[in-house]
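__Protein archive entry__

___
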Amino acid sequence: MRHFFPDFNLWLDELPEHRSQKLLYYHRRHLVWGGLLIFLLHLRSRLQFNMDRCCATLAANLVTLAGTGEKAIAHGDTLALWFRTVPAAHILELVQRCVRRLIRMKALDNFRLEGRFLVAIDGTGMLTFDHRHCPHCLTQQLSNGGTLYYHPVLEAKLVTANGLALSVATDFIENPQGWTPETKQDCEKKAFHRLAEQLHAAFPRTPFCLLLDALYLDHGVLARCARHDWKFLITFKEGSMPAVWAEAQRLLTIQSENRRAVTLRDGARRVYRWAQDVDVGGFHALFCDETDPPGTVTTFAWLTNFLIARQNVIALADQGGRLRWKIENEGFNTQKNGGFALKHAYCRDGNAARVFYGLLQLAHLFQQLMTLGGLLRPFRKRFVTVRNFVRRLIESLRHQLLPPLADLPPIGQFRWDSS
């Protein structure tokens, strides 16, 4: 924290405060750090947080982290009560400020693709209920005749080859106030355009390359990328744009010189093929045919506005298009099954649930900085897994006092492990 975000607690002081100053006991810093500990320590619920908070050493360490003076850790219900009053956008903005700080420090520059940061966009489920949770629930009719009420979310994550998946923008997919079954529900494609504007507003001058699923392969999405001067690599399937797909196949036979083959160490063979100008918009098609040692062939295809040549075709495919899956694995899968319990309802109040979601993204960012940095090899040797690291972190915070910040040694150099 001292190295990457020395002003983090000052950022917390900017959060809106609606409580009476006369009745205020827990500082907003304390409450945010309490919420962060739920996710940093993989407690998975407010109930478990309440069970673990009654520890004097842990309370003292939280006070040290927050720079406040409370004698005990706030109850989980106290956190939820205050989170109801804090606009979730302010918490999500904290995540963006952290990523913006990393970009300005040039900490992520080694992971650019042709000078651009890779941002994967995809949706996932957040909360599901068997009854209407709020007026904004999306609904789905089940085969058994029942109705599923759910709250999905659309995420944009900055992804890197070494496994980082940092949230840079979030849009909650939900029906508007007054929605009726006679009108269309909110959906991912509608949310994409809101998310794109939010991303551009937060990072107006940052060069991005969007990694998108075939769902987003339409002219409206491509036009918005052009408007913001973003590059893109979109999964290309025949059913998405049949006419463009047919044109790409025709051009592949004509532009037969656009081909490059490589053999990997494990014996697998990859053949990269590309077709230039498959659409009037100046888009290009990139194909990668991978043959594994047993002889099974898998084809990957993307539509892109990068100019493709022999010099960059491998990087575009391997260090670009194929990194889209990291939002699923390092992003959603880790947050659902790696201790963060993304799909758990931390609070039934809609705004508080979104605040908890923002804190989850913030905690996941901090965990990635701790586990994927220059100490990666010593980390693997000592802890082997993130789960073991979190267990040791819990025990350390419960039994060992953190030293005062003034007594800490000077900050050393921090390098990313890109192996």
